Recover the amino acids of this structure.
């Protein structure tokens, strides 16, 4: 369990850079997500082939994993759209609603009763989001896209949790990226009809940022996240990922000076989000069985 939390928080630190890359890369949100899927899938394929860890799955299993990849791609489109229509801080904070949606969707999909403590913690996160959104109405489109993105992200996490128990983490990562890119490709013309682009080819600097994003913030990040899901529930992973805004906002303030756009209500809401994460971690640790507590103390 201890190693799972360490891997999870390394993934969160890497995730903190995804918003920065979303601002740096000039292509629109759809192309950014599409290229990220393809590049990450190809990189993962090369790594597994070189290390002889490549695993062949049946076409039925490939379709299952591809569904998770498609959900991931749609989440990225909403996430980067949120950043481009607002700013990095608003975009990453919207992602915090993933825990709220997971607390609702997971019991419905897995046919399990709702957990009162999870709902209460999610409501605390929701209160933080509501407080943050009160500071300015000019980011309305970005906020809507961010909320939709977090809902899709929760579906991805629930789907990925099931896959993590059936396949190796690197296998899930590779096939979800490639399968997601393939599934997203026929949808791109529809996307371009609403959001036209002048060119489909990124600039040289965009290619460099895309490669960094694909490797460190995608391949490495999602392998660590998938490994963590073997020991930690989807809800706990999603709620822990609410720490991502802390890292990303710090970088956004340092690089883009976004603190000039943020008011006290933003930081108060962020405090509520952090509090929900701390309370969830305490709840998980106290709820461990004796053998799991021994693992935590190693």
């Amino acid at each position: 369990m201890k190693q799972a939390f360490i891997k999870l928080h390394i993934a969160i630190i890497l995730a903190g850079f995804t918003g920065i890359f979303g601002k740096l890369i000039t292509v629109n949100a759809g192309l950014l997500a599409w290229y990220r899927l393809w590049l990450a899938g190809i990189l993962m394929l090369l790594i597994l082939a070189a290390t002889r860890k490549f695993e062949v799955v049946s076409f039925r299993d490939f379709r299952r994993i591809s569904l998770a990849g498609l959900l991931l791609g749609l989440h990225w489109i909403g996430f980067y759209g949120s950043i481009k229509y607002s700013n990095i801080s608003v975009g990453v904070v919207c992602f915090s609603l993933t825990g709220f949606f997971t607390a609702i969707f997971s019991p419905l999909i897995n046919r399990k009763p709702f957990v009162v403590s999870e709902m209460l913690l999610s409501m605390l996160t929701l209160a933080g989001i509501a407080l943050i959104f009160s500071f300015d109405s000019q980011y309305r489109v970005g906020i809507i896209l961010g909320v939709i993105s977090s809902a899709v992200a929760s579906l991805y996490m629930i789907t990925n949790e099931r896959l993590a128990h059936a396949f190796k983490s690197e296998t899930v990562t590779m096939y979800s990226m490639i399968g997601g890119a393939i599934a997203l490709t026929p949808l791109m013309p529809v996307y371009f009809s609403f959001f036209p682009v002048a060119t489909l080819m990124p600039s040289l600097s965009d290619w460099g940022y895309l490669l960094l994003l694909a490797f460190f913030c995608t391949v490495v990040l999602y392998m660590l996240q998938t490994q963590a899901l073997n020991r930690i529930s989807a809800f706990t992973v999603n709620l822990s990922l609410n720490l991502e805004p802390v890292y990303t906002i710090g970088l956004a303030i340092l690089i883009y000076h976004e603190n000039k756009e943020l008011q006290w209500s933003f930081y108060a809401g962020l405090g509520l989000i952090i509090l929900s994460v701390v309370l969830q971690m305490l709840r998980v640790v106290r709820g461990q069985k004796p053998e799991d507590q021994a693992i935590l103390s190693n």
Observations:
- The chain is about 80% helix and 0% strand.
